[in-house]
Amino acid sequence: MEDVVIRTLDKVTLRDPILVEGLPGVGNVGKLAADYLKEQLGAKPLATIYSKFFPPQVYVGEDGIIRLVSNDLSYWKAAPSAPHDVLILGGDYQGISPEGQYEITERVLDYCHGLGVREVFTLAGFAQGRVVEEPRVLGAATARDRVESLKKAGVVFSRNDPGGGLIGASGLFLGLGRLFGMEGACLMGETSGYFVDPRSAEAVLKVLGRVLEVEIDFTALETKAKEIDRIAQKIHEAEQRTSEPSAPSGPGPREDLGYIG
Amino acid sequence: MEDVVIRTLDKVTLRDPILVEGLPGVGNVGKLAADYLKEQLGAKPLATIYSKFFPPQVYVGEDGIIRLVSNDLSYWKAAPSAPHDVLILGGDYQGISPEGQYEITERVLDYCHGLGVREVFTLAGFAQGRVVEEPRVLGAATARDRVESLKKAGVVFSRNDPGGGLIGASGLFLGLGRLFGMEGACLMGETSGYFVDPRSAEAVLKVLGRVLEVEIDFTALETKAKEIDRIAQKIHEAEQRTSEPSAPSGPGPREDLGYIG
Amino acid sequence: MEDVVIRTLDKVTLRDPILVEGLPGVGNVGKLAADYLKEQLGAKPLATIYSKFFPPQVYVGEDGIIRLVSNDLSYWKAAPSAPHDVLILGGDYQGISPEGQYEITERVLDYCHGLGVREVFTLAGFAQGRVVEEPRVLGAATARDRVESLKKAGVVFSRNDPGGGLIGASGLFLGLGRLFGMEGACLMGETSGYFVDPRSAEAVLKVLGRVLEVEIDFTALETKAKEIDRIAQKIHEAEQRTSEPSAPSGPGPREDLGYIG
Amino acid sequence: MEDVVIRTLDKVTLRDPILVEGLPGVGNVGKLAADYLKEQLGAKPLATIYSKFFPPQVYVGEDGIIRLVSNDLSYWKAAPSAPHDVLILGGDYQGISPEGQYEITERVLDYCHGLGVREVFTLAGFAQGRVVEEPRVLGAATARDRVESLKKAGVVFSRNDPGGGLIGASGLFLGLGRLFGMEGACLMGETSGYFVDPRSAEAVLKVLGRVLEVEIDFTALETKAKEIDRIAQKIHEAEQRTSEPSAPSGPGPREDLGYIG
Predict the structure, then answer these.
(1) What is the percent of chain B with per-residue pLDDT over 70, rounded to a whole number?
(2) Which of C87, C208, C72 lies closest to C149 in space, CA to CA?
(3) Of A28-37, A69-78, C187-196, which gets the smallest average pLDDT?
(4) CB of B184 within 8 A of CB of B146?
(5) What is the CATH number of the domain that holds A112?
(6) Chain C residues within 8 A (CB-CB) of chain B?
(7) Residue D173's closest CA among D28, D21, D17, D23?
(8) Which of C100, C134, C174, D143 is the most buried (most CB within 10 A)?
(9) Chains with 3 or more CB pairs under 8 A to chain D
(10) Closest Cβ–Cβ partner in A52, A64, A97 for B140
(11) pLDDT at position B246 over 80
């Protein structure tokens, strides 16, 4: 079979579209943000992406219907006054091997290039290894002018973060995008790395909304954030109780190690 | 070499054939069921499938003759009154890498599509992690009408199981089958996951027999089930004895951890 | 690059040639036997095989000259009275991935088929997990007539050995060879599995010599066998001394665990 | 995508160019040496090499600008009196799978062959497992005349080192280079294997400078070497203090286990 199979579901002409990528990763920040954006904009299905570089797996819905794991592209046509239509890439998995990551990214970029995409935003989480009360949004970009304009939108460019660079789709869509003549940036919401983090996704989307000149209602995302807070708090309390007897000599409470994926 | 090599052994014309897949997996339920069906129907060899995605291995028979590991397709011509001929896919292994799983499944589906297959049943085990006295058959399907008709045949569609979806050939034959325009369902026999489970295979085949309108004699399978019961019982007893001294404080008897593959 | 590169060093016409394969494996029996046969026959270089499925490695000789790891084919022209010329496949490694094993074997078989090969002998060790004083030669073959003729040459066909079949080149050259219309057999010298075993290689070569009607002088191989015996004996003694204090309660001397590769 | 993508940045005609390879590896000796040579010669960018066999990663500079991981070729035009122009291959990574190593090396060699390269020097570290005060430069070459001429340049050809051969790019560029009709040698600076080792890189470059008839100023490299010495010394002292209580019976100070990559 072809390494990557892209099935087009709808034929559309887009006006200077911008690609927004958000796939599973640290704190699931990128995926949460992309899925929420898709939902709030009412973006429509454009194409489904299957690949032998995804796990050999189907999901089963509550209705008993199976669905092969995939990535998917949705599109949103902006008002005539707005500068850009938007393409959103979401999905179940990133490619599970390094080669797979390259192959999938390159094929999706090629497809999007054909639709007129010349600018890419990738959304991700940035693991700080500690609870982050008010997540900042860190940035990395393909060119100096993007760095400057994102700084004005509130993005933090830190000299040392991310030290080891970006690994996975959020980096590769920018790095390979350059070979297609695309510019772009990665928006990374700070997160502990231990929990799915809707609050970090919200911070990322607020910046993105400003940059894309798109209005987003955050009510539902904030509800989800509070729910996660409540679960985290319960785990914290349970572990506090468990670790008390050994607290004086032990390595201290490990409340922050529980990962709710 | 070609990634997947399919050697046709017999040229046949089949009447609206249904593909039944049963390869090694949880409790070996799928393979046991497919092999037993093949035997009981007297299905004939149609094609042998070799692949570099199987282990580099030959089996040696009791007569000293070697045989390269493979999957194989058999066919059964139904009585003129019955609606469908049947193709059965069995074999030694599933593909040993994710890419291999995709490649083999896609090639076999393509081959079967050429033979007229438009409907697929995949047979599998569903590990419950505890001894299951009377295994139910859980289902997942490609479309709502299949869900409804299988419910009538006694299949259980559970809202939460299988939670993580289906991994491997049993899922992929359905998921990729959809890309070939095939419909189908997976029949999963409940099993402990610790033993080869002919009883679960029998439960699966009973449903399949009803759906395919095929009569199956279960005597030999029941004999095999009793034999496994006896072995399991012995292991249970042996481990009871071993674990007795530490029973009050230890994690309890581990009788359910022995896996007879 | 091509997955497998075969460089022909010499153009020859061979008379009904038989391929003898002996690559690194259990007790290095196959490689020892093939290398010794090559040396004793004075076989000449025919082709070198490079592949990206070998490790990315060069060897450095004592003279400081590098050599890329490879397999190699040598040929021996038999006397006109003898029925077959002989091709010998030896080398540094088997393919290091399952796919690589298939690719390399298939390409070498294709090349050898072009040279007229219709019969293959693969040489291997069979690990018994204990010291073997007088190694038998176990067999597996592609057809009944080969089983019978090898029994007459002293080969043992055991109902239960090798139980799990043959893994690696020794099995694959026979299994894939069948797809090229080749017949053949595997000759497995019993060995402990803990040492390089020239004595087992000698047992294998004695059978092969009878079958190929080739005279082989075993003096040098017997010298090597005695040398290994001496090393094994020393390790045995050293470990006896080490394990003495704990002998009553410990797991006993582990003299057989030292592997001299 | 293509397995290996080479983007040419500059069109040049080179005079009998020699390829010098130095990629990350033991003690980072090869990379340090190649990068320093490039800097000192003022070599200019010739081509960038991307590959799906590198990690799916981008680096982020201090200015927030991303860069896809790559290898890169630079060129230096020698004075008309000197015999050879020089090509330098450096980069972030070697291929991360064995197949990847072969594919990348073969494509780069093919590209360089097109530029006229017939001679290759690969630079590497040779791990001695102990602190090396005055690193020797060990050698391995493709032909006897290279061994002789390198001995005159101070390279040590040891009968036993490197015993297991060379693994990775430094070996493969020579081994595969032979298939392109290229000759060459590997220069290995002795190093502990525990630290990045500019002193070993300097030893390697001194030999290379002699062979290529190129003047190199080592001031900056010596400054770097002293800096590493200072860090190593601090780690040594810290570990001395830590290990003192257990020194009489313990395995001794572990100062040499800290690896500063």
Answers:
(1) 93
(2) C208
(3) C187-196
(4) yes
(5) 3.40.50.10900
(6) 95, 98-99, 101-103, 105-107, 139-144, 147, 157, 159, 162, 165-169, 171-172, 174-176, 178-179, 186
(7) D21
(8) C174
(9) A, C
(10) A64
(11) no
Query: How many of the other CB atoms lie within 10 Å of CB of D215?
Result: 8
Residue of D102, D136, D144 to mutate, testing the C interface (most C Cβ within 10 Å of its Cβ): D102
- Residue C260 domain flag: no
Q: What is the secondary structure of A207-238 as a DSSP string?
A: HHHHHHT-----HHHHHHHHHHHHHHHHHHHH
CB contact under 8 A, D57 and A103: no
Question: What's chain C's average pLDDT?
Answer: 90
D176 interaction partners in chain C (CB closer than 8 Å)? 1, 50, 68
pLDDT at D227 over 80: yes
**pLDDT for position C258:** 32
Q: Do D166 and C65 touch (CB under 8 A)?
A: no
Residue D38 shares a structural domain with residue D164: yes
| B/D Cβ contact: 3+ pairs below 8 Å | no
Do A162 and A246 fall into the same domain? no
- Grade residue D25 by pLDDT with cuts at 50, 70 and 90: very high
Task: Indicate if A84 and A209 belong to the same structural domain.
Answer: yes
**Do A178 and A74 share a structural domain?**
yes
Q: Strand, coil or helix: what is A41? A: helix
Q: B225: phi > 0 → left, psi -120 to 50 → alpha, else beta; which? A: alpha
Tens of pLDDT, residues B42-101: 999 999 999 999 999 999 999 999 999 999 999 999 999 888 999 999 999 999 999 999
Q: What is the ipTM of this complex?
A: 0.89
Domain count, chain D: 2
Beta carbons of D58 and A166 less than 8 Å apart: yes
* Residue A49, pLDDT above cutoff 70: yes
* Mean pLDDT (whole number) for B139-148: 96
Q: Which two tokens stand for residue B248?
A: 């009050």
Contact across the interface for D171 and C1, Cβ inside 8 Å: no
Q: Do B52 and C142 touch (CB under 8 A)?
A: no
Are C235 and C209 within one domain? Answer: no
Q: Any idea what the Cα angle at residue A253 is, between residues A250 and A258, rounded to 5°?
A: 130
Q: What is the pLDDT of residues A69-120, one digit of tens each?
A: 999 999 999 999 888 999 999 999 999 999 999 999 999 999 999 999 999 9
Residue C159 lies in a domain: yes
pLDDT, tens digit, for every residue of C54-101?
Answer: 999 999 999 999 999 999 999 999 999 888 999 999 999 999 999 999
Residue D151 sits in the same domain as residue D243: no
Structure confidence at residue C168 (pLDDT): 96
Q: How many CB atoms within 10 Å of residue A58?
A: 26
Query: Which residues form the domain of C237?
Result: 225-252
Q: Which residues of A touch D53 (CB under 8 A)?
A: 98-99
Residues C178 and C234 both lie in one domain:
no
Q: DSSP characters for A69-108?
A: --EEEEEEPPPTTSS--EEEEEES---SSHHHHHHHHHHH
Q: How many CB atoms lie within 10 A of CB A155?
A: 25
